[in-house]
């Protein structure tokens, strides 16, 4: 017997867990009347699929484990008859019973094929095989706003947890030096999206205390950063670049530094204001302004004060150049949107992590409050969400939409998504 091709094991488990089947006239294959009082807790480890289920068969209440298969013959195909973990299940739930001659002593079997809506299977097939921007492009706007609201909060939590995991690892490595972690995190942020890793490698190749020694010497600071980035190894001709090159040679020997290779940097298909050379120049200016940048971040009480810390002008050379030796009539600096991206992706998650580590709810609440005050991000993903009628009112919501697209929609994880579940379970 063939199983509906639109059905997968994951979907069948979801149908059972959420009781998306008709419970009228449920009977075991032996004719026993079945009531599903509680389907059980989904077991994601070894052993039967659900535990602590409460099933009433005729007049007897059973509490225990339930195993699910698309076909009843899968029990033998999976070798469960030889596994003691499956010897005490109270019910074997299948979509199709293809074993009418069941061996004696086996657990009762419940076939659900006639109790599962074909509409549900069709909706799932449409989601799985959709080729648009997201699988639910034609249905997402019809999902209740309350579902969207709670799901966006969960998505933001997931996104920030991923960002904070790196920061937490850095804190462990450097004995909770918050200023140095801030330096690494900001470097990574200034390189986003395509130069995040080279920027982080650059920062971690230059000890933070070493850079701070030269904070009052702009030429030395830039020589260290551009030299370590490998950008002074190339053939340079203009006076400023030659000065940096000469200074870096001295500092490299003095501090036993090993520069990166210049080929790590990406330049293609980006606006000049996002060139890594200009970003390094602005980053150098940011580091020069304070020996305790993270402390100043924590002192900021509102969004305006926080943004003010990051509106930095680089040294005069970079007001006429995007790259070494290539003068430009006008140079457009990274603007307010670039500053807000740094706040959204790095500064606010770092403040939140600090509050959690120090058990200071003020900083956690402040980070979330400031995130909601920031406007939504504008990029190709948020624009495509808007085209299907899903928008974000602030940065918290746009971050959630980015997480949804990248971690759920692109992976077709509709059964793990509140929106997908809402569509499947809709009337």
Keywords:
17 helices; 427 residues; alpha/beta; single chain; elongated
For the largest beta-sheet, the strand count, sense and barrel status come to: 6 strands, mixed
| Number of alpha- plus pi-helical segments | 17
| Percent of residues in beta strands | 5-15%
Helix amount: 40-55%
N/C terminus separation: 30 Å
Described by its quaternary structure, the protein is: single chain
Number of strands: 8
The assigned structural class equals alpha/beta
- SSE order: HEEEEHEEHHHHHHHHHHEEHHHHH
Low-pLDDT stretches are: none
Radius of gyration: 29 Å
What is the molecular shape? elongated
What is the averaged pLDDT score?
93
Descriptive overview:
The chain is of the alpha/beta class and about 425 residues long. It is built from 17 helices and eight strands. It has helices at about 10-15, 75, 120-130, 145-175, 180-190, 195-205, 210-215, 220-230, 240-255, 275-290, 295-300, 305-310, 335-355, 360-375, 380-385, 395-410, 420-425, and strands at about 35-40, 40, 50-55, 60-70, 90-95, 110, 320-325, 325. The strands form two sheets. Strands 1, 2, 3, 4, 5 and 6 form a six-stranded mixed β-sheet that branches. A two-stranded antiparallel sheet has the order 7-8. Helix 3 packs antiparallel against helix 17 (about 420-425) and helix 5 (about 180-190) runs antiparallel to helix 10 (about 275-290). It is elongated and about 90 Å long. The relative contact order is 0.10.
